[in-house]
């Protein structure tokens, strides 16, 4: 009878191949890599493809998270920790009395303790997809780094305090350990600590720059520190934030000389407290315009405020007049950047306060008179010296940025302006290339526009934005004067003359702007695009001023000849057309004050919407653009939410019925179009 037993392999090679094939088949049953989010939530086996088969079959969007979730402690770890602490308590109870007296000697007390949690170390937490190991309790060498660090902190605390005080510190440490391990609360990065005031607590926990991104100092004391020190950011992160500022912010706020800034920040350069304030403000604004460091912006912002409000930053340094002026100039720059950040990420009230501080410092430094006869003696230097030219040019740029900030912060609520344009004796800033290369250039004054609107030959996008912002501010003042003269019954001839003068100046500058820059260059440059919007919103301001003229002027027909019955809606349509090019830019490279002209344009479109259905498309463009900017810029968003709540009322049938008698002549003219 033939045997049914299979014959053995002819040689050992086939057997080895079979075993290797079985091993590879066994190990290859699951592809490497993380499972997708949907498979994890539904507890399905994911094939690790992109997209995976389960999501394709279910018709879902497959999403992968490259960073595995943090796992809690394995079974037995917490129990082992509790047993070790109990043994430690028993050992402390058996400590001889003379040993305790030795521990009270401050000369024999241990030094500062620094406890770190290594949140990036996942070697003891499994592979990220499997369940916790249900095996026996691990040995001491298998205890994860966070647990060993916490136990070491408790052990160090025990030998540094008395028995009675040790019980309090031990209970606080035990509570913190239970919170970290059982509740599994993530500890935010860059938390630093200061020495405790209590003599029985841990002496100090020193911050370190090595705590990024996964090492976080943890304060194990029973009470929080009284005041937090400055943030400790690694040098590479600081360098990256500085570079982000010059890439994304400096083009709109060019108040820094790049070479000088980086030279002062080098080790051993002797940076002052005011320069540290400026650095903190720069990095705050850079983090707000970054997705990589966006989570740091709040901590950086509070660090900047803490530095700016510190007495060492505000007190005179006791040096020369030039050093004191440099200190005040850096404080003005820092407050300007903080105000812009608060306009983008905070409340308008806080931003107004910070902007007011910056403007007051600018006024105290008399930066409105840099090139006039009232300038300080140490500023009266020729433009042939490159260093002297840069010093004076920085002052000019700080003043003009504060000048624009004053206009932008007042135009939303139609508040009176702070910086009077009639007293300015500071020349316009030179082109950026000449400034960075330290090439002396003589620029005209802003008042030269009144004599010859085309007199500015060495123009730049920054200068054009200043010019149109100044015209916008004049239109705002014109509105306020019209309202005041309407209440007082002032002379009508003066109102009409001022209105025509502003109209001629704005028309001439807009024509000069169109000749200087092609349409393609405006659409490809975010600063030029914003400047063009400011020019159009100045037309809207003059249209609003024309609405106030009939109450004080008999010759209202002459004003209508200027075409403001159709110029206002035409300017709103042009702003909507320009807004369609904003999605071509990164949200991080849009001018911080872009929402202001968009919001004012939206207000006019809402006003005209029930009467002109053709404006619905433009209103949709403006609304979508503001919604997209909301992710990085909160300016005007609160006002827009209120406007959207009233939008339904504005479009309700019969909303304007019975209100025709309340309409101004300007509104009635637009209704007839």
UniProtKB/TrEMBL annotation:
InterPro entries: TF_fung, XnlR_reg_dom, Zn2-C6_fun-type_DNA-bd_sf, Zn2Cys6_DnaBD. Residues 15-30 have a biased composition (Polar residues). Its main location: nucleus. The keyword Plastid does not apply. Residues 1-37, 57-79, 91-142 are annotated as: Disordered. Residues 35-64 form the Zn(2)-C6 fungal-type domain. PROSITE patterns: ZN2_CY6_FUNGAL_1, ZN2_CY6_FUNGAL_2. GO terms for molecular function: DNA binding; DNA-binding transcription factor activity, RNA polymerase II-specific; zinc ion binding. CDD domains: fungal_TF_MHR, GAL4. Gene3D superfamilies: Zn(2)-C6 fungal-type DNA-binding domain (4.10.240.10). It is found in: Nucleus. SUPFAM superfamilies: Zn2/Cys6 DNA-binding domain. Residues 119-132 have a biased composition (Acidic residues). GO terms for cellular component: nucleus. GO terms for biological process: DNA-templated transcription. Keywords: DNA-binding, Metal-binding, Nucleus, Transcription, Transcription regulation. PANTHER family: C6 FINGER DOMAIN TRANSCRIPTION FACTOR DBAA-RELATED, ZN(II)2CYS6 TRANSCRIPTION FACTOR (EUROFUNG)-RELATED. This is Fungal-specific transcription factor domain-containing protein.
